[in-house]
Amino acid sequence: MDFRPFEKTMRPIFDNMELIERDNFLSALDSGFREAAAGEGYSFFIIGEAGIGKTSLVKAFLKKIERESIQYIGACDSLFTPRPLGPLYDLAVQMNKTWINEIHSVSSRAELFSRFVQELTQKQKPVVIVFEDIHWADEATLDFVKFLARRISRLKCLFILTLRDDEINQQYSLRNVFSDLAPDTFTRLVLTPLSKQAVQKLADEVGELQMLCGRQQVYLVGGGNSAGQAALYFASHARSVTILCRSAGPERTMSQYLLDQLAARSNIEVLTHSEVVRVEGEGKLEAIVVKNSQTGEEATLESGGLFILIGADAETGWLPPEIARDRRGYVLTGSELAGTDRWELDRDPYLLETSVPGIFACGDVRLGPVKRVAAAVGEGSMAIAFVHQYLREAEERAGAVAG
User: Is the Cβ–Cβ distance between 286 and 303 less than 8 Å?
Assistant: First the structure.
């Protein structure tokens, strides 16, 4: 058969593992973002030991609000001579080319910082700025951190900074940053290690996966991001992982960062124009029969696992037409309704509110959220809070009318 493995060049990717015991931190960041979107900016210093999950937490949060915000990310590096204003250069590249010239041409640090703050006020959406690993920051960068954080409450901006807790006491300049900020303008989120129960849960899941896939040939049906993410995860446990793609390849349906990483793993390949037509085995799966849709040829392939990742249906057909949905059936909520003819109140809809005021949706049924159990659970708790807020405001309106 003329099946072709997919080949690309290597590029780093983000960890797609589900966050555990981080819902409270995500909720705190989300609350801060809502305040910032309303015009009262805020800063978060996310603190924890190396490898505890600071970056994973930030990335999960940014993914959650990516459609509602403008995001800029800068990083400090572990260099013998730190880059002066290194994170600001990172931001300048993401903003526009002229900002690189601004950094070089402005002689006064205060003027440069003021121009940057002025630039933020021109943005239509709330801005989220992330500085990673500020324990490695040079003094010029820490000056900028203080400058922006002291003015953050007047901006539609959320400022997130990550740092290692064991570096704070060793760097006087870093401690000086905290002492110069008003206590009501920032929060320190200190990440705690996972509980024994969470660690045991992870160990059990990995053990089950190794028992299921160890030294097996695993096949995945699908061509989207879910198939790519699953392939990367299974590749750490299975002898080989093969993605079966009905089309000519996943280039049009999978994110580039996943394509690059798949090509870098020697035990992952992609078979194109391929469909599973039959499975075989006595009491358990032993082989699959795959058909090439172009040639009509069939081949029997030894297999210890077959996983189907071809997307999901919203299953919202039972909802009344008053609940607005997109063409695939996913429920529109919050900012997706603002400015449309499906929202009739003077106020903007709450984050999880549907086109019917007072009815809220959470989890995978919503258009656009991260499809993760942890995200759905967090949204569920937020939906309860919104229900209480809606009922409280309804009572206040009723009281005002009665008075």
Answer: yes
**Whether residue 275 has pLDDT greater than 70:** yes
- Report how far Cα 107 is from the mean position of its chain's Cα atoms: 37
CATH of 23-190, one of 3.40.50.300, 2.30.30.60, 3.30.110.30, 3.50.50.60: 3.40.50.300
Cα Rg of the chain, angstroms: 25
- Asked if residue 3 has pLDDT above 50, the reply is no
Q: pLDDT higher for 380 or 186?
A: 186
Dmax (CA) for the chain in angstroms is 80
Q: Are strands 274-280 and 287-292 parallel, antiparallel or unpaired?
A: antiparallel
Q: Which of 105-114, 239-248, 279-288 has the lowest mean pLDDT?
A: 105-114
Q: Where in the chain is the domain with CATH 3.40.50.300?
A: 23-190
Residues of the chain within CATH 3.50.50.60 domain(s) are 203-308
Neighbours of 284 (CB within 10 A): 6
pLDDT score of 1:
26
Supply the DSSP string of 88-131, one letter for each residue. HHHHHHHH-THHHHHHHH---HHHHHHHHHHHHHT-SS-EEEEE
Is the pLDDT score of 25 beyond 80?
yes
Closest listed residue to residue 239, CA positions, set 212, 206, 263, 267: 267
Q: What is the pLDDT of residue 389?
A: 87
Assess if CATH 3.50.50.60 describes domain 203-308: yes
Query: In the numeric block, which tokens belong to residue 235?
Result: 């590749």
Q: Is the pLDDT of residue 97 over 60?
A: no
What is the per-residue DSSP string for 200-263? HHHHHHHHHHHHHHBT-EEEEE--SHHHHHHHHHHTTTBSEEEEE-SSS-GGGTS-HHHHHHHH
Q: 285: part of which helix (H) or strand (E)?
A: none
Average pLDDT over residues 33-51: 90
* Residue among 21, 29, 27, 17 nearest 56 (CA): 17
What pTM value is reported for the model? 0.50
Token pair belonging to 244: 């079966």
